[in-house]
C-alpha cells in the first residue's frame, strides 16, 4: 500500500491495488529543488488569498468538473506544491511532489493523501485516475523530461480521462521570477500542442491565462529584467487585490466560451483517447 505522509492509513486502502510499489521504493534522484525553498513559504502564506492563485484554481476546478469522466472518482495533483489547490478540491484527491519542503507545508493544511514522488515515474498503476492536474510544474528544471512526465500523467489516467495543465508562456519573458522558481522552459502554444501529440493525448483546449493583465505584467517583467532574482508572489494591498481578482474573474468567465490567444501562461486540457471499439463480427 502506498504510504501517504501524515496519515493513519484510514480511508486510503482503496488505492492499494492501484500503486506500483516498485516506483515507491525507487526514491527520486537527488537534484536541485524545483523551487527556491523560500518561495514555498511565500506560496503557502499567500496561496489562499493571492488574486493569481485564486483565479487559476477557480479556472482549474471549473474545467476539471466540466471535462472529467466519472469513472474512479480519483484526481491526482501531480506537483501539488504547498497544497492550495488540493485543499480547494477535496474529495478523493491525491497529491505528489518531489520536494519534502512543499509536502511539509501541504500537510499543515490537514491534507493526508500526500506522497513524495518523481513525475517521470509516478507510483500508480495504469488507469488509476479520472484526472491529473499539473499546475505550473512541467517547466521546472527538476522535471528533466517534460514529455516523459506528461506521458506518465497519461499512463495513470483511465481511457477518456483528462490532464489539466498550466505552464508559463512566452520564452522571451524569462525574468527575475523565473530565477526564483528555477524555470527551465517557457512554452509557446505550438510547443504545448506538440507536447500533447508526443504523448498521444487529444487536445481539448489551449487558452491563454492572465490575458487581461498581460500588458501590465509584461511591462513589470521588462522593468525588472537584469535585476536580482525576485518573486512575483507577495502581499498585495486588499483594494488592489480585489480589483485584480475582479479582472481575472471576468477573464475566466469569458474564456468559458472562447480561448484567449495570449496570456502570461498557457492553460490546457488534454484527453486520453478511449480504447477503440472491438471490430464487429460480420461473418
Helix-strand blueprint:
Layout: H1 21-25, H2 37-46, H3 51-67, E1 75-78, H4 84-89, E2 93-97, H5 100-107, E3 114-116, E4 129-135, H6 146-155, E5 157-168, H7 176-180, H8 189-198, E6 202-209, H9 214-224, H10 238-254, E7 265-271
Parallel strand pairs: 1-2, 1-4, 2-3, 4-5
Antiparallel strand pairs: 5-7, 6-7
Helix pairs in contact: 2-5, 3-10
Order of H and E elements: HHHEHEHEEHEHHEHHE
Mean pLDDT: 81
Q: Could you estimate the helical fraction of the residues in percent?
A: 25-40%
Please name the CATH architecture: 3-Layer(aba) Sandwich
By DSSP, the count of extended strands is 7
Per the CATH scheme, the topology name is: Rossmann fold
CATH class: Alpha Beta
Poorly predicted runs are 7-13, 19-32, 276-283
Strand order of the largest sheet: 3-2-1-4-5-7-6
CATH homologous superfamily label: Vaccinia Virus protein VP39
% residues in beta strands: 15-25%
Total DSSP helices: 10
| Major pleated sheet | 7 strands, mixed
The geometry reads as globular
Number of domains: 1
Query: Which structural class is indicated by helix and strand composition?
Result: alpha/beta
User: What is the straight-line distance between the termini?
Assistant: 47 Å
Radius of gyration: 19 Å
